[in-house]
Amino acid sequence: MEEGKVISQSLQESAAAYSIIHEKFGSAISALDANETMPFFEVIDTSQWTEIALFMRDHPKLKFNYMACLTGVDYPAEEKLGIICNFESLALFNHKLAVKVKCARDGGSIPSVACVWHTANWHEREAYDMFGMLFTGHPELKRILCPDDWVGYPLRKDYKVQDQYHGIKVPY
Amino acid sequence: MQELDTAGLGSVRVTRQSDTVVILEKDLATEQMVLAMGPQHPSTHGVLKLECLTDGEVITQAEPYLGYLHRCFEKCCENVDYPAVVPYTDRLDYLAGMNSEFAYAITVEKLLDIEIPRRVEFIRVIVAELNRIASHLVAIGTYGIDLGAFTPFLFCFRDREIILGLLEWASGARMLYNYIWVGGLAYDVPADFLKRVKEFVDYFRPKTVELCELLTKNEIFVKRTLGIGIMPADVAINYGWSGPMLRGSGVKWDLRRNDPYSIYPELDFKVPVPDGKDSVIGDCLSRHLVRAWEMDESLKIIEQCIDKMPSAEGFNSRSAIPKRIRPKAGEVYGRAENPRGELGFYIESDGKSTKPLRCKARSSCFVNLSAMKDLSMGQLIPDLVAIIGSIDIVLGEVDR
Description:
The complex is a heterodimer.
Chain A: H1 9-25, E1 40-43, H2 49-58, E2 66-75, E3 80-88, E4 96-104, E5 109-111, H3 119-131, E6 134-136, E7 164-165, E8 168-169
Parallel strand pairs in A: 1-4, 5-6
Antiparallel strand pairs in A: 2-3, 3-4, 7-8
Chain B: E1 11-17, E2 20-28, E3 32-37, E4 49-55, E5 58-65, H1 73-77, H2 86-90, H3 97-112, H4 118-146, H5 151-171, E6 180-181, E7 184-185, H6 193-215, H7 219-225, H8 233-238, H9 243-248, H10 255-258, H11 284-308, E8 330-338, E9 341-349, E10 358-362, H12 364-369, H13 372-376, H14 381-391, H15 395-399
Antiparallel strand pairs in B: 1-2, 3-4, 4-5, 6-7, 8-9, 9-10
Helix pairs in contact in B: 3-4, 4-5, 4-11, 4-14, 5-6, 6-11, 11-14
């Protein structure tokens, strides 16, 4: 945080929420990136992601009951794939936090949080469909927007479209 | 409705006579049958396929299949400049193009951290609220058709046509506007536009009452929707529901109030939620009622905007538009209250390129529809139609 910069009220509350999570999980999560547009932290020990998620949802001072969005991202430079989840506490608190979870680009997996927030169910399927990371523990991990027999993961930066799909020419 | 003890009777065929359930036949042989609804089915409002496992008239499981209208929105965004994404956003929720553009514009503006002229904000809110009414008119009209009421549909489309005419006059297009740009507007509104909008507001206000009498006071319509597809508030939040769907479950949550953007904090409007008098909170009728009430609130907002509108003197709708949009490296999640709920954009910029590194659209219908499996369990097939209609999906936004 730059000195002398005015920190908005909501960012302060988000930072307070982060410190509660940090107290419990310590080095399993990274430091808070306290930017004004989207404060976030990263889960370093991905095996604990589901516990962190449950803690965020159920802790009486956090109550992140609403998952606004789950975005899949490709980081080709780091050889990684990742997800970004935006959380907030609907009608209870003003804090908002985003969480990043990353995994290896080839055959990497992230624990699923579909059991914590129903929203994650379809969003994780979409992330799998577009990027190809696996979500361990997901109730039915299959493609959602592309057909089941589609080859490749379209939103990866190095994606090349298949030449033929059931005898139909694909690229134009 | 009276509970019936069917233990030991095997499968039964029942009928409902006023409030009593009468057994017609018992010990019936049952067979599970797969019934595919869609992708070409009028009640799925587009190309949605529902694969239902049915036992007689009762649905034991319904699995939605989507993606028939997938047009790679997010991949397209990574290949075009920031301003060029705007026309694509129109094609997400094609019934509420203005609102989608609005959501995208405020997200990029948040990333750029720029000031928007006040008149631009007012015009944006007017066109967005007009579009909200138009969108709700389609939702209400087609919902009537789903349940067998044809007349409201004609009334809704007659009035919607006036709104589309107004928006066409402002932007040049009927549905896919490309009007709200990042940092401003394509054009200022035409002379006399506000006068015509005011005329429309005065014309439309009595029509909402008329619509109400046609549908919400219609015995058949109420019987088909009351107590059907009930969604409790906590489950709705966990599912990530937003917009009229969430408010239908009794949660007073509207981004225009709770995460205000643009000039909404200055405007006086109510966030209508069902009180449980006319409907069961969380059922299809509640969701319909919320949409009907919201149209009145939108009219109020439009009227206030017309009154408070700054003058056009020396106004250039493109004055704040950056010549070259190249945001500093960073990420943003911005969102707006669309007619169907929260439309959010996650945008990541690498600080070097004029194209977004990643642009994800968080679609409200996609999230609302994901509860379909739970909602349809154990419902009758005609009730399934009522439930899909009440979700008010636009497949363009679901599939992106």
